Every structure is written in C-alpha cells, then in structure tokens.
Amino acid sequence: MKVWTCVVCGFIYDEAAGLPEEGIAPGTRWQDIPEGWACPDCGVAKADFEMVAV
Amino acid sequence: MEHIVIIGSGLAGYTLARELRKLDKAVPLIIITADDGRYYSKPLLSNALAQGKTADQLAGAFAPVMAEQLNAEVLAFSRVEEIDPVARSVRVAQRVIAYSKLVLALGADPVRPQLAGNAADSVLSVNDLMDYARFRERMAGARRVTILGGGLIGCEFANDLSHAGHQVDIVHPALHPLDRLLPEAAAQDLQRGLAGVGVTWHLGHTATAVNHAAAGYAVTLDDGVIIAADAVLAAIGLRPRVTLAQAAGIRAARGIQVNRLLETSAAGVYALGDCAEVAGHVLPYVMPLMAQARALAATLAGTPTEVVYPAMPVMVKTPACPVAVATVAEGLAGSWQVACGEEGVCALYQDDQQGLLGFALTGKQAGQRQALAKRLPALMP
Ligand SMILES: Cc1cc2nc3c(=O)[nH]c(=O)nc-3n(C[C@H](O)[C@H](O)[C@H](O)COP(=O)(O)OP(=O)(O)OC[C@H]3O[C@@H](n4cnc5c(N)ncnc54)[C@H](O)[C@@H]3O)c2cc1C
C-alpha cells in the first residue's frame, strides 16, 4: 500500500486508509480511483498528483 | 487568427493553460509573466521551512520546460505595463503583443502594514517563490520572529517557524486569531494549539513602529509594549492586483470584476485567480481557481461555460491544531451549534431546520470536513 500526496496543497491519500467519506474504500489503490477524481482540499486533478514513497 | 494571451504564471495562469491544452492542443498561446515563470505551488510556502525545503526544492519546471509542456510561448521577466482593450494588445517594455482573447491571472499583493520607525522597510512578506527564498535566507540567522497578523497565513507561518525552532510572537488586532473565519471556540482552540508549541500571542493590539535595535529590531505595539525580534514578517492580508485593468478602463472593485463566464467589462478580456472578483466573490484560494480554470478553458475552447462553486472548505495548515472552515454563503441566516471535546471543536452553523450552512472544525474533528462538506449548499450553484 502506498501513500500519495497532492503536489499543490500537501493533502495525503493513504491507500490503506482510503477515503471512506468520499466513497473510496480502505485499500483502494491509486490506479483504481476514477480519473475524474480531484483533491478534496484544493481541487487539483488526479493526473496532477505525485507519488511519495513512505 | 485566434490567439490567446495569459498574463501571470501562478497557479491560476498555469492551471488555465493546462486545462486549455486538454481541450485545444493547437490554439497559439502566450504566457507573459513578471516573475521567472517557474512553476510552484504557493500553499506549500507556509509549511516548507520546518521541512528544511529550499525554494529550489519547492519549485517545479523552469519557464522553457513549461513552455514545451504547454505548447506555449512563456515570456518570463516581462511585466505588462499597459492593456489596450480597443486595439486588443498589451505592451511589455517596448514590445506590443496582440491578442484575440486576453486572460488576467495577476494575483494579489500583500498589504503592507502602516508602520513608523527606521526599520519599517525591513518587514518581510512571503507571497511568491522568490520571497520565500529571501525569507529562508533571513531566517537562517533569526532566533526571534515577530509575525504581524493572525489570519490564515500568519498562523500557518507561526506554526511552521516554531516547528523550525524559532521563538514566535504574533501581533493581531482582534481578540482571537482568524476571527473573520472562525467562531470563538474554534479560534480559541487554534490559539491554544499554537501557544502549546511556543507561540506568544499579542491579541487586541497592532504594531505601530519597527526600529533597528542593538541586536535585530524593536517592534512597538499600540500599548507601548516592545517586542525584540531578529526578523518581522507581515501577513495582514492580500489586495487583488487591479490597477493594470483599471488603467485600461476595465471595471474593478475589490477585485477585477467578472461574470460567471469570467468575462471582464472589456470584450475578449477575462480574469481568474486571486485578482478576480467573480460575481461578487473574492476567494483567494486554490479550490475556486481550479473551478474557474476548468470553466474558462472550456469557454476559450469554444463552449461558453459558467463557473460553478460547490461548497469549498479551506484547510488551515497548522499541525499544532489543524482547522477546516467552510464559510457561510452570504445572506444565509442561522446560528452556531458548538461542541467541544478531546477531539477538538466541532462548530456547525445551521438554519432553523437544522440544515447545515457552514462549519469550523479543529483538531481531529477536521477529519470530518469532506463528509460535512457534502451536506453544505453550493456557494454558487
Ligand atoms: C503562504 C500562502 C499559503 C497559502 N496556502 C493556501 C492553502 O493552503 N490553500 C489554498 O487554497 N490557498 C492557499 N493560499 C492561496 C493560494 O496560494 C492562491 O489563491 C493562489 O496561489 C493564487 O494564484 P494566482 O495565480 O491567482 O496568483 P499568483 O500566484 O500571485 O500569480 C500572479 C502572477 O501574475 C504575474 N503578474 C502580476 N502582474 C503582472 C504584470 N503586470 N505583468 C506580468 N505578470 C504579472 C506574477 O508575476 C505571477 O506570475 C496561500 C497563499 C499564501 C501566500
């Protein structure tokens, strides 16, 4: 499981935790999140996120 | 032939260019910018010091790389001095550049505090990458830092500076930090959180003078108290850059006024980001500019598209006490229901039907922001 961070605002997406409040179940891999998804804090598109190794 | 000119290479200018290229790969595009044209994310500037990040580490691609990625011409270090909306051209030094569509993505200037004293000019502000580079250099030798302004940006810098080992004083005219955004209980929690990491508050006061002292500076407050500081940082607000537009007869009030198509009062001239006042809203945050950029890109690509604002909570990046706030849309009446506990403050602004209109969450409660945001009415449906 990986952790991703928004390059614009620093929001963190942790695959293990998912985002249940956004309807994204724990364990959802980054690649399985819909392309139209955007950062919940700043609205940057999924394509513009960057991966951070933890 | 159709060609688009964007003035400004901040998040607004570059995001618009990127969104436009998703829809139209070919239309000639020129981006003119007064700075170096390097891509960077401004929100990261207020929590980079404690992470030890240099300006270079925060920055992304240089102007020539951005130009290639965006299939655009990027004119860096080029300040537009004049817009001629009749001839449809802009002037940069001696050069006149024609446009068929012009986009103003000019950003906002930090408000300079009104200060007496022989060191008033030494007060720093951080509003772009180059400011950050200067700021970081100055912080290297500074132990005590005084911040003027306890708003969002002032509080973020206070947290970051104290994490980085500096002794921070904040001077703020209201009795609580972030008083314009937060109800009292939430503001007090933030105040306590920052005090807990060593920040000293001077609430209910303003600074009147900054003078050179034997070591560093002496910051004088309106009650005569003097704070010793090695550096002074102002974060007392931002003012949309409107003068270039106003000089061209383009209508502006708090910001450059645009309708929901992001059109100014001049034909073929648009505005977005921190410089814009969109149907009466001035919202200097990333979420609104992303929504604007997507709508304007579609409009410029030939499909007139009005900008829509969902509810857009703002996160205050103060790890000592994270805060999420969704301000109440104008004209909506209700009252605050405040619950405080170990997990922080959960303040909900509700109408008399228990409908949620806004919120302020601190500490662990901030984690609920996305779930609660879904229950809020759209800011501009
Ligand atoms: C420290 C800090 C932290 C922040 N944190 C957050 C956050 O966590 N979340 C959030 O949502 N928002 C945050 N914000 C706000 C957010 O960063 C801004 O809303 C956003 O970056 C504005 O982008 P912009 O492109 O409109 O303006 P800018 O980035 O200011 O860009 C303006 C551009 O216009 C150019 N320009 C201006 N005049 C001329 C001219 N005459 N000729 C040519 N070029 C010109 C400038 O050189 C620059 O390239 C923060 C802001 C600051 C300062």
From TrEMBL, chain A:
Binding site for Fe cation: C6, C9, C39, C42
TM ranges: none
Entry cofactors: Fe(3+)
Gene3D superfamilies named in the record: 2.20.28.10
Keyword Translocase in record: no
Co-factor binding comment: Binds 1 Fe(3+) ion per subunit.
BP-aspect Gene Ontology terms: alkane catabolic process
Name of this chain's protein: Rubredoxin
Organism in which the protein naturally occurs: Sulfuriferula plumbiphila
TrEMBL record, chain B:
All copies of domain FAD/NAD(P)-binding, residue ranges: 3-280
Molecular function terms, GO-annotated: oxidoreductase activity
Pfam family, one: Pyr_redox_2
Broad class of where this protein is predominantly found: cytoplasm
Name of this protein: Rubredoxin-NAD(+) reductase
Sorted UniProt keywords: Cytoplasm, FAD, Flavoprotein, NAD, Oxidoreductase
Signal peptide segment: none
GO CC terms of this entry: cytoplasm
Gene assigned in the entry: alkT
Cofactors (names): FAD
Positions of the Rubredoxin binding domain: 306-376
